[in-house]
Structure formats: structure tokens, C-alpha cells
Amino acid sequence: MNETSSTIDRDQVWATYAIAVADVLEREPAEIRLGQDFRDDLDLDSLGFFELVLELEDSFEIDIEESKAESIRTTDEGFALVCGYLGR
User: Fold this and answer.
1) How far apart are CA 63 and CA 29, in angstroms?
2) Residue 2: inside a domain, yes or no?
3) Which domain covers residue 14, as residue numbers?
4) 3-class secondary-structure state, position 74
5) I want to staple 88 with a disulfide (CB 3.0 to 4.6 A). Which of 4, 73, 83, 84 is the partner?
6) Which stretches of the chain score pLDDT less than 70?
């Protein structure tokens, strides 16, 4: 992402977030919605979750702490975590 985190609004963050999640899940970004459980709704296994964290770190140029990453269960929680890192 070429924009600095200070110029990114929540809609842009969501769009990038949905693309990152969709890429890992091999789905379309439009299929990613708030409220989805990564394991139950999106069939994300442990390896996929690790890939997702790496994808989010790359997409947003952030370094997600392992303890925080382990607490993510839903798309809402992941989005909130990314927004927190970006100050949104």
C-alpha cells in the first residue's frame, strides 16, 4: 500500500482488508463481510490463519503481535485490530 496510514479512511481500510482476506481464502472480496467467523463461516484453518496474518501485515505495512493475532476469531475482530494499528 503506497498511501500513508494517516491518509487512509475506514472505507479504504475495509476495502484493502476484504481483498487481503479474500486472497488468502481464494474468494471474491464481496464475499467477505463483518460478522463472519474465520473458522466456522469461512473454513480458515490454522495454516490459513497464519497466511492471513502475514497478508494483513504486508497489505497494511504493520507488524501484528502474535498475542493479538491469536485473539482474532471473526472478520470484525481482525478489522478492528488492523484499524487499531492504523489509528482508525
Assistant:
1) 23
2) no
3) 7-86
4) strand
5) 83
6) 1-8
